[in-house]
Fold this protein.
Amino acid sequence: MEGEATKGVLSVLSRLEMQARSRKAKPPQQQNSVKELKSTIDALITQRDQLKAQIETQMCVQKLRAAMDKQGAHEADEEMDDGSENSKLLRLMARHAQLKDLLHAHHLIGGYDIVKTCQGKGVCVSLATGYEGVYLDTYNLEIDLKETLRIGRHNIPPFIPVNSLAEQSNMQTDIRAFLGALSQHLNAFAGRKQQELHKSVEVLETNALCSILVLLLTVPREKIAVLCTLDYADHTRCLPTRVCIECEDKELPGSPHWKNNITLLKETPVHKALITMKKMGYIV
């Protein structure tokens, strides 16, 4: 009886061990599906964080404008009650502070400041660039205020088409549109440059405008070298418009995993996309 009981227990234990092993050994298709879902989740989390940052910035600007409007209404009420010299001085000081806040908000939103030069015969525009909440380079541009506006001295990189942007934006009638377009080009260039300088990005080839980026990636298991080319045809953006994958394995670029990787590289800054790809085990 004891022998039969022992055999029965061993049989149950053996069956449980086989079930545990079968659960651990997931089919390749299920593993691939899990990796794809994780990659999609990482991409969605990145997009969510970007949207949160944009919403927070817009809310801060709206709060600042609402506070300024409230302050202006309060000052108007005081003006009707008191006409003394002290009250006028206080109103002027408050108005000056309000204008300074507006200029600071414009600097944060518009990305440029303007001051007079040459005894009012011209203006100097300072265009600040930034990426991911960090201020980077500032560029200066002089504009002569004559019958026809003319671009003077500047330290903007030569590969940024300043004169072409002035013509396309019709600077003579809408200088704000021109400055906005120029600021957009400069900030996009600064963003692309910062992505290339990130420690997770090993650049094989690039250019001065950072509009072409060639990376050499390695698939870990097969040790296959993958040549990844990012083409930033739209110079007003920090994200590529085209991603090309080349390697000895002709089937790899068309595989589901690498199709997802290409989409990730198009929709996510390159340094963040590469970190995600490494975490998922697609590259070394």
Q: What stands out?
A: Helices lie at 2-24, 28-81, 85-110, 162-168, 175-197, 256-267, 270-279. The chain has seven helices and eight strands. The mean pLDDT is 81. The first strand starts at residue 112 and ends at 117.
